[in-house]
Amino acid sequence: MKQAQLKSIFVMILIFAIIGGIAYAFERISLNYPSGEWVLSNSVPFNFTVNTTSASITYCALYANNTGTMAFKANYTNIVNATNHIAGVTINDSHAFNVVGWNVTCNNGTTDFSATVANFSVDGSVPSIVQDSPASGVYLDNLNTTLFKYTPTDTSNPLDCDFYTNLSGTWQANQTNRTWASGTQISVNLSNNTKSTQHTAATIPDGKYVWGVSCNDTAGNGNDIFTQNRTFIVDTIVPTTPSFSIPENMNQTNATLYVEWSVITEVNFDRYDAVLSPYANMSDPTQLISVSGNTSKNFTTFSSVVDGNYSIQIRAYDLVGHSANSTVRMYVLDTVVPNVTLNFPTANNSFLSDSTPDFNVTVLDMNPDSCILLLSAVSGASLLSNGTRLLVPNGTKINLTPTTMANGVYLFNVECNDTVNHRVNASAGVLQTTIDTIVPTESNITSTFHQTNDTNKFPILRWNLTFESNFSKYQARAFYIGNNSLAYEVNVTNQSIGSAQLNLSSNSSYNFSVIAHDLAGNTAASSNTTIQTIYFTDPICAVLNTGWNICGAVWTSPKTLSLIANETGANQVAVFNSSHKFATCNAAVSTTGQHCQVTTNISNPMSGNGSKIGVYDTNVNHVVFIYVNTTTDYRNRTWAANAFSSNITLTNASGIGWNIEAGFKRGVITFGQLAYEQFFTNVSLFSIPYNNGSSRPYVNNGLFRGLNNNTNLEYGRGIWLFYNTSAPIINSTLANTTYTVGSW
What we know:
By secondary structure, the protein is mainly beta. Helices cover 5% and strands 42% of the residues.
């Protein structure tokens, strides 16, 4: 009964309420979403419901304070009463919880009505992850030192990141980082592994593995890149060591070098590097060739290698970068044969005077080794080694000395090699040499012209022929007396010719020698050289100038004026006779005419008067006057005296005291010496006549009696002497006086 009453009362109350609501207007706005949660998109689907008893809803306006103040965002019409309305509006990330407030204001045609403000936060950014290193597929040899690096980015609310690997056999997080700043790189070292339970970084077996990263923010946005997981391969095993199989001989002559080596064991093989370096430590490689295959025959070729000393090494690499190096093999490339120069003997068909001659060579080569002398004494026979092979330094002259060689003809060559066994001879063909140790026989001088004085500057020297099978030359030589220096030399290369014309200078004294040479350099000098008398080239009247010439008669055997004319080509020849008169032979007219048979010489013994040595005929003519139309040589003024001194008598015929005599003393005597040693006061005047092509017949030299008068009277020169009988004479008075010539 009570329950029935209560039910009736509730129904009555409800009826009154309904009737009351109809009687009064009702408006309400419900903010359905978002309200107190995170919105994970910047495009916010605002959801609200309008409940109203009004006839209609004119519009609704959406407001939000995401910029700091509540501001209008959008206006909506055609709002259906009591129906959810979803309106999308873009709202930037709020970066904090409950920071965005929003509201809706609607109009029923007459009145605006609003909801209570609702709050929410916006985080529309999913964390991004960049895996920095290592790259996918990388090979690693030490996980203790390897850093896995990634960079997460979230501009709103970063929370945590998990680093994943399958190192333990299953996919699991190895490390979590709960505090990170957006855009900051995170490094993971597996030696600090906090979650793996099966292996440490040091005990992980070699193999292929995967790593990835998952990150979340506080809004609940999450991102993982497990679909972009990167692989890495752990390889801690070093390749086995390669070894050379070719080349074995490291001395090479080919600029292209073929190299071959053994196969290595390596799961993760990468390559071989064949390295060529000029240094033993393999620095600064000249060539480096990479070979990617690992077959049963590993090889490569170094080409265009220049000559030099090199080192070769093979280096094996795996994909991790582990390497194993072969031993260093030294290598010499020498493509150039030695350059051998034969310094001695200098030419083929040489002649040597030494029975153990030094065959001298110079070798130019980068890697010289040795040389040996090849010799044969038999024509056409093979050359055989003579002596020992001698080591040779580069660019240095060396001697190869044979065993004793008898006189005769030999064939020879010199063979040299370098360290790569290039062999070359000093000559492309076989050479010949002759050993000759026999000295030529002497070529003694046979000519006698040099036993006298002569104006002839071009005498002919004669000698005995030598006996020599390998004759080279005669060497005829003239030497100056005094300093023994060489004056003239002429070579005669014909063995059957035993004479040579010399070319000497005037007014000089000479000695002579003849040296016989053979082709081997043996010599023999004339042994009678030193016993020869000096040859003096008399300059006086050696040349007859145009006109009158006054010459001393320096020949022993008498010469007629006609003979002198024939020798000189003179037109006239005259003497100043003992009667103090000129007797002239006019040879231009006749050589048999008057006075042409008058003789001249140094002096003649008196005939038929019991003549004796040193006493001479006063009628002898000692000076001759020669007239020539053209300058000419007078080569036959030879004095081969058979006496060593003489006295010449001066006369004063008919009161005429002039005498003309010749200077007969070899060398010179001064006027001062003549005045005080010879003439005293007996000769008051004396003068030397000259003829040098000028118009002056003679020159009077003046004060001849001065003690220091150094005017010279030369050999063969004519001299005028005035004999004065009235002058005081020491000891006695004589009609004549004696001119002591002295020793010549």
